[in-house]
Amino acid sequence: MGERILLVEDEEKLARMVELELQYEGYQVEKAFDGRTGLELALGGGFDLVLLDIMLPALSGMEVLRRLRRESQVPVIMLTARDTVVDKVSGLDMGADDYVTKPFAIEELLARIRAALRKRPARPAEEAPLLTAGPLVMDTERHEVTVNGQSVALTRREFDLLRCLLEHKEKVLTREALLDQVWGFDFAGETNAVDVYVRFLRSKLDEQFHFKLIHTVRGVGYTIREEGNP
Description:
Elements: E1 4-8, H1 12-24, E2 28-32, H2 35-43, E3 49-53, H3 61-71, E4 76-80, H4 85-93, E5 98-101, H5 106-118, E6 130-133, E7 136-139, E8 144-147, E9 150-152, H6 156-167, E10 173-174, H7 175-183, H8 192-204, H9 206-209, E11 214-217, E12 221-224
Parallel strand pairs: 1-2, 1-3, 3-4, 4-5
Antiparallel strand pairs: 6-7, 7-8, 8-9, 10-12, 11-12
Helix pairs in contact: 2-3, 6-7, 6-8
């Protein structure tokens, strides 16, 4: 099975052409046509490389890259019509691995992809993409959650919130911090959105499986602790 590549490009004809060429070379390809969707997919994990246009609706490619680099070191190649030194330096300084200017020859893009994939740090064989708390296990690559081996169906937002809490297990996260990391710093809603989704998680986990997972720290926020679990 070939490497998985996420292509974030709003020009649908170009995206389709690149997709077909990559598939012909044996890569698995998933597409997104705006920055926000691209970021959500990239943060979901499982991709070996991201091809990222700069001029995107919803979120610019630079903003997608900035947020992605908070949590992931997946190789990123920027695709853009901009050809100035300033733009290239900005992208590389923010964590891009390479920069290809449109229009480009597909052979050049394929060569850049091969080079970026060769530079990937190999994952140790014993490393597993699992987060745990008591009887709960989250597989971040498969996007699966189980409790005592029983699968739990979560929405994307519920999954992202639970993942954030698990990644900071035993630490108290404020509602503002959770909004920033799960909803994004530009979210226009109220902090009670966090409370609503914590209730959703508790109904699917704490109440369904009769164990205490998500603890409220009054006046501060929420945390996941091992204590109190069976």
